[in-house]
Amino acid sequence: MCKMTTSDYYRYRSAIQAANDTGDREALRQIQKQLIAKYGLDDEDVRQLLKYFKYSV
Question: Which of 3, 26, 55, 57 is most buried, taking the most CB atoms under 10 A from its CB?
Fold first, then answer.
């Protein structure tokens, strides 16, 4: 797995916030899949980003 860059972190965080604001659970589900597939659950940044999810997906 590759290491998440700072710009990727903030890009994902913005996408999560936008999906939270609109209540788009499908978008959150897709973001979650992308994060886990690309970086894995062992990545600290991924675990932090998943805490920003407003809804369970």
Answer: 57
